[in-house]
Design brief:
With 249 residues, this protein is an alpha/beta fold. It is built from seven helices and ten strands. This is Precorrin-4 C(11)-methyltransferase.
Length: 249
Amino acid sequence: MTVYFIGAGPGAADLITLRGARTLAACQVCLYAGSLVPEELLAECPPDSRLVDTANLDLDAIERELVAAHEAGLDVARLHSGDPSVFSAVAEQMRRLDAAGVPYEVVPGVPAFAAAAAALKRELTVPTVGQTVILTRISQQATPMPAGEDLATLGASGALLVLHLGARYVDRIVSELLPHYGVDCPAAVVAYASRADEVVLRGTLGDIAGQVKSAGVLRTAVILVGRTLGASQFRDSHLYSAERDRHAC
């Protein structure tokens, strides 16, 4: 028996990976966050599988479901939105499974920031403009940020920032980034990336907060800030350059 932590992708049911879909179809138990994972994905589960919506379960209850399946010899698909490697809360579940002696594997998925970049039709790394992307969030009452990971510190790098879980705090984000990026720095917000109700907002640090409020975006969104979002004049990459020696080792 194995627990499979499966990245369900950013929202569209067809953005789950082939491996993820095959694994989901082979598991007798599926735990999923009903508020984030599209219902269409559940159609991939076996007809007689046990489906458990974890939206209202705490960590103890989730652990009990996983351990009970292990004791019954049943494989479990633990569906998480996006990719399990970022802001997925799988680390504490893995820790519990390690302690209980329950085996598990991870199946990666399409992360929200990749779906947001696709919606914006932008490459987040552009030659001579920006080659660094920082995935982060802001400190909130329930989960403070570690020392040195505040926006003022990260913003000093000038790298493109992708902020998760921050749409409600857009005013605060803008005020903390303005000293580092300037009022004219390109900014964007993508909510419900890849879904039918996707919302794409483009602007600058000077106007993006107003756009977010006007659109009523409060959750399931990523905020992107950085010069690569608006880059048009930049050097072509060396990868496809005619001057590149394609016979070199």
